[in-house]
Amino acid sequence: MAHIPNIIVQLVHIEGPLMGKIQEFSENKIRIGRYPGFEVQYPKDHLIISKAHAEIIREGNRFKLIDTGSLNRTFLKGKEIQEAYLKSGDVIMLGEGGPKFSFLTKVEEGRRVPPERPPERPPEGSPERPPELEEKRIPLDIQYGPTIRSFKKLPITIGKSPRCDFTIDHTSVIDQHAQIFFSQGQYYVKDLTGQNSVLINGQPIELEKPLNPDNRLELSPQGPKFRFLSGGKLFEVED
């Protein structure tokens, strides 16, 4: 018999002093504020955040955001709230113009639940299949919209095709668009489009180029656009 799935909460910090951090929680209560020991703790001098600002409470398979008497209020999708149920992909702001983070959830199945069958890859020599690279046990987290995926091995391919490791449905993304790999102690991105579509900091990478912390990675001039952080984290950014 399969174990009962665990719902994991992921908070992706997109603005503020914790920007770039991705936190995971399985607790039924996540406390947010400046108090030492809180699950989400902001610096003590970041005064837009109250000492006990807000909390996220699990109720069955739902999660509720509660403002716990903050001075500068709590906002969900741009609207002030006292209490509200959350959906994966919601953006929370603490204080007007304050730190922001995305609320995401994922289900961890029990060990006896059979894993998903990996998608078929195109045959060797197919124009849809990028050249094989040596597989490395290196972590990579990608956040795009309400989706976050954690990979433990590289390389991975990104594109519109369901055969890709990370699928993005975007008008400017083709079936096999880019590849991220690790070589000689460095993350790299490779352009698979053949059209110099992939850019780093606004400059086409031609074939492949290292990814350095705080680089802006654009899959095309029209997007999607990401910020790369140390430790192998890509999170979506908006203009």
Plain-language structure description:
0% of the residues lie in helices and 44% in strands. The protein contains no helices and 23 strands. It has strands at residues 6-15, 22-25, 29-33, 40-41, 52-59, 62-67, 74-76, 79-81, 83-85, 90-94, 100-108, 140-144, 147-151, 156-159, 166-167, 178-183, 186-191, 199-200, 203-204, 208-210, 216-218, 225-229, 233-236. The strands form 4 sheets. It has a 7-stranded mixed beta sheet with strand order 13-12-23-22-21-18-19, with no helix packed on it. A 6-stranded antiparallel beta sheet has the order 2-1-11-10-7-8, with no helix packed on it. It has a 5-stranded mixed beta sheet with strand order 4-3-5-6-9, with no helix packed on it. The N and C termini lie far apart (48 Å).
How would you sum up the global shape?
elongated
Q: Which oligomeric state applies? A: single chain
Total of DSSP H or I helical runs spanning 4+ residues: 0
| N-to-C span | 48 Å
Which residues sit in consecutive blocks of at least 5 with pLDDT less than 50? 109-119
The number of strands is 23
Biggest sheet descriptor? 7 strands, mixed
Strand order, largest beta sheet: 13-12-23-22-21-18-19
Which percent range describes the beta-strand content?
Answer: 35-45%
* Helical content (DSSP H or I, runs of 4+): under 10%
Instruction: Specify Rg, calculated over alpha carbons.
Output: 20 Å
Query: Secondary-structure element order, as H and E?
Result: EEEEEEEEEEEEEEEEEEEEEEE
